[in-house]
Design brief:
By secondary structure, the protein is of the alpha/beta class. It has a single domain (about 5-225), classed as Vaccinia Virus protein VP39 (Rossmann fold), CATH 3.40.50. The protein has 7 helices and 7 strands, in the order H-H-E-H-E-H-H-E-E-H-E-H-E-E. The protein has helices at about 15-20, 25-30, 45-50, 65-85, 100-120, 160-170, 190-200, and strands at about 35, 55, 125, 145, 175-180, 200-210, 220-225. The chain has a 7-stranded mixed beta sheet with strand order 3-2-1-4-5-7-6, with helices on both faces. Helix 3 links the parallel strand 1 (about 35) and strand 2 (about 55). Helix 3 packs across helix 5 (about 100-120) and helix 4 (about 65-85) packs antiparallel against helix 5. The N and C termini lie far apart (about 35 Å).
Length: about 230
């Protein structure tokens, strides 16, 4: 089935959020990083601006900046309305209000859009859909990140997540996944089965991080090869 833009709800996060979600140190930021399902985050643009490198992969990168901007404009109000209706599922601490959330997210996505075409030309944004195999070598990357992608969407099923992790771990020495709750800010329904399946091949650790916007979403999963 073809991947269509009208199935996407773009929502971008910033470098400082990535640092807090994944407990990234300055040493981590110097590593060879691949970020899965980055969408319209400004992480890549901001990393590039400070002289660091990251490769972002996502199926939405098949579209143009203009097409992505149109989709962002179409869905932004919908996301904000849903957030307003479900404010009890969020922690209004660092981000103080729905209005501030909109400003932060739109700012991140504007920065992404300004960088996107040049980034595609520089091969910093690559079109790819997990769990399909990538073309990268085994252990080509020091660190893989998954922000609001794996484990967030329970409806994709356990097999999808397991197959995706296997490909991520093939090309990465370490993978970090955030958050460990689903879209309803509830514990992912198959996280326990997922962890049991991983433990035969990988070291896993659940780590509390200094970021919580979805209520209860303040943990990341760290996976390393045995």
């Amino acid at each position: 089935m073809a991947y269509t833009l009208n199935s996407v709800v773009p929502w971008g996060r910033t470098l400082d959020e990535y640092e807090n979600m994944f407990a990234l140190t300055q040493a981590d930021l110097q590593k060879k990083i691949i970020s899965f399902g980055d969408g319209p985050a400004s992480f890549n643009a901001e990393m590039t601006a400070i002289g660091n490198t990251v490769l972002s992969i996502d199926p939405i990168y098949q579209f143009t900046a203009g097409q992505l901007r149109q989709r962002i404009d179409e869905t932004c109000i919908e996301v904000i309305n849903q957030t307003t209706a479900n404010q009890e599922n969020f922690v209004w601490d660092t981000i103080k209000s729905v209005e501030e959330l909109k400003e932060k997210r739109m700012g991140a996505m504007e920065r992404f859009l300004a960088d996107f075409e040049e980034g595609k030309h520089q091969k910093r944004y690559l079109t790819h859909s997990l769990p399909a195999p990538t073309s990268f070598l085994d252990d080509e990357f020091d660190l893989g990140l998954s922000s609001h992608f794996l484990l967030l969407y329970s409806n994709l099923g356990l097999d999808f997540h397991q197959q995706s992790i296997n490909e991520m771990m093939r090309i990465c020495k370490e993978v970090r996944i955030f958050p460990l709750v689903n879209l309803n800010a509830e514990k992912n329904e198959f996280i326990d089965s997922f962890l049991i399946a991983l433990q035969s091949d990988y070291f896993t650790e659940i780590v509390k991080v200094a970021y919580e916007f979805q209520r209860g979403g303040n943990q990341m999963l760290v996976i390393k090869k045995r």
